[in-house]
Amino acid sequence: MSKQDNVKPTNFIHQIIESDIADEKVAGGQVVTRFPPEPNGYLHIGHAKSICLNFGTAAKYQGQCNLRFDDTNPEKESQEYIDAIAEDVRWLGFKWNGDIRYTSDYFEQLYQWALYLIANGKAYVDSLSAHEMREFRGNLTEPGKNSPYRERSVAENLELFERMRNGEFEEGDCALRVKIDMAAPNMNLRDPVIYRIRKAHHHQTGDKWCIYPSYDYAHGQSDALEGVTHSICTLEFEDHRPLYDWFIANLPVPAQPRQYEFARLNLNYTITSKRKLKLLVDEKHVVGWDDPRMPTISGLRRRGYTPASIRNFCEMIGVTRSNGVVDMGMLESAVRDDLDANAPRAMCVTRPLKVTISNFAEGKEEWFELPAHPKDESMGLRKVSFGRNLLIEQEDFEEEKPRKWKRLAPGDAVRLRGAYVITCNEVIKDDAGNIVELICSYDPATKGENPTGYKPNGVIHWVNADHSVPCEVRLYDRLFTEANPEADKAVDFQNYLNSGSLEVLTDSRVEIGLKHAVAEAHYQFERLGYFSVDKDSDENRLVFNRTVTLRDSWMKIQGK
Ligand code: ATP
Ligand code: MG
Q: For the domain with range 266-342, which CATH number is right: 1.10.600.10, 1.10.10.10, 1.10.1160.10, 1.10.760.10?
């Protein structure tokens, strides 16, 4: 699907908000959402959907969106991830309300509310082991059993909980649970644990705490403290909603947020799970979180995706409650659309073949002015250098030309893009029989004119061998060979990594105007695709990443 298809994407969250506004159910009249990442990895394209939804929804209704780190698992979290996530949100073009927030900002209040639950006979310290707790919990067909510690007195619970906080117990010795119903059909209501002992250093609170709240307990209360009106999350949390509501109903919270769930984004030929992406990084299957093959926001950025292309993609896929898999081709088509309109054009020869123009004087140079963009005059002109020694793409020459060949062949003519028509007069080979050079002649009458008396086969790109910039070109393919690398639970998804996902060409050359191209600049290399300057570039060597090919050739190759 592309923008032209004119399909209006659905967003049922917007419908809910509109009816809430109409019914005057939005507290304070202002929609407040939040994006609540756990800082345990870098964000991926799935998170981009959630970011666009939360920030986009707030913006649409003149509300606010908070960025809140859900930092209740200190062992897996780090400042590196916090910084990377904040940068990704900013880069996508969104601005959060006020300062960055942390669930850990609310640890003291959450602790006080835990005391409140205990005092009201709604929470107890359980001394069952984790294993016993699991056994007592029952399963989907059998009700659970009450813990023998469930009826501890309020005084005993208060004392034990304080001692938990003071570090007098070891991890696993006890936990604080809320008293709901061990026979509830919804397992999440079978006296869930809301505080665990974790003797871990926390990136925000240091060693202040050795008990940490559960996600379920912390999340809704943090929403309430921030005045969040619509707490939007993915469908896995649907079964947690009754618990979310239970806390809001049983605590003296300052607001009444509501949780709404939407379907997470799944994209084929990749994975959207921080945990699994971390494995790829840790096991060095990729060069880092921002490897251009990664579906992380930082990887897509390095690959050459633009913020607008990712936002447009999220708009195109819509927001629903039905889980599905989105085709990678759709993401690619979003970036193609954006770069087609906005990327200046340039010529790059990725696998060079030497062409000598025998009738063009040695040492002479001629400049051609070409539009930076064929459809956008405002982008101006670029200067391209022509001379006796040129380079063309190896694959643009065939000694035995196939039928309907549109490029160069012995005795044939082609136009060099934006310059002259040349004719191939001689093919020079090395001892091994490889073609190493073509001797051609140019037709001086063909500058901006068609030749008379003969017809060129087509148009090919080229650069001046003596006046162009050496560069490295990195071509990428799908990271996985299987559409769903997670489908077979018995097989490790890493078995489906595509060994050919990166091809590096080190002999490439790009037109001289790109000499000072800066990191993250985007170009369309004519006939080849869209490329962007990699951060590995330095003054001696430019490195380009192919963001995407000009057309969706991949689908055709796969026979779809
Ligand atoms: P992961 O499994 O990749 O770690 P997560 O859900 O644990 O994802 P969080 O950091 O907790 O990651 O996610 C922050 C927000 O992004 C949550 O509201 C979550 O629902 C949402 N989110 C995560 N993955 C997706 C996805 N694939 N599609 C849409 N939203 C997502
Ligand atoms: Mg999570």
A: 1.10.1160.10
Contact predicate 230/11, CB 8 Å: no
Chain position carrying tokens 């992380």: 296
What does the block give as tokens for 22? 């109409």
For residue 154, the SS3 value is helix
- Helix axis angle, 154-165 relative to 107-119, nearest 10°? 160
Answer whether residue 44 shows pLDDT above 70. yes
Cα dist from 322 to 12, 13, 16, 110, 266, whole Å: 11, 13, 16, 34, 11
CATH class, range 350-461: mainly beta
Name the segment(s) of the chain with CATH classification 2.40.240.10: 350-461
Atom of ligand 1 nearest to the CA of 36: 14
Beta bridge partners of 533: 544
- Catalytic member of 38, 156, 162, 171: 38
Rounded Cα distance, 376 and 391, in Å: 28
Reduce the DSSP state of residue 467 to 3 states and report it. Answer: coil
Question: CATH 1.10.1160.10 spans which residues of the chain?
Answer: 266-342
Q: What angle do CA 485, 491, 496 make, to 5 degrees?
A: 40
Q: Measured between alpha carbons, how far is residue 22 from residues 15, 26, 260, 465, 486 in Å?
A: 11, 9, 18, 67, 43
- Give the dihedral sign, CA 32/38/39/45: negative
Compute, in angstroms, the gap from residue 525 CA to the centroid of ligand 2: 40
Q: Quick one: pLDDT at residue 551?
A: 87
- The pTM score is 0.95
pLDDT at 109: 98
* pLDDT tens digits, one per residue of 421-445: 999 999 999 999 999 999 999 999 9
- Site to probe by mutation for ligand 1, drawn from 13, 45, 50 as the one with most ligand atoms within 8 Å of Cβ, is 50
Q: What is the mean pLDDT of residues 94-104?
A: 98
> Ligand 2 centroid vs 318 CA: distance in angstroms?
22
Which residues of the chain form CATH 3.40.50.620?
12-262
pLDDT the model gives residue 7 = 57
Q: Which amino acid is at 206?
A: G
Q: Do the beta carbons of residue 7 and residue 256 sit within 8 Å?
A: no
What top-level class would CATH report for the domain 12-262? alpha beta
Residue 543 clears pLDDT 50, i.e. is over it = yes
Q: Which atom of ligand 1 is nearest to the CA of 41?
A: 4
DSSP collapsed to 3 states, 29-72? HCCEEEECCCCCCCCEHHHHHHHHHHHHHHHHCCCEEEEEECCC
pLDDT at site 254: 97
Q: How many CB atoms lie within 10 A of CB 248?
A: 18
> Which of 129, 210, 133, 111 shows the shortest CA–CA distance to 173?
129
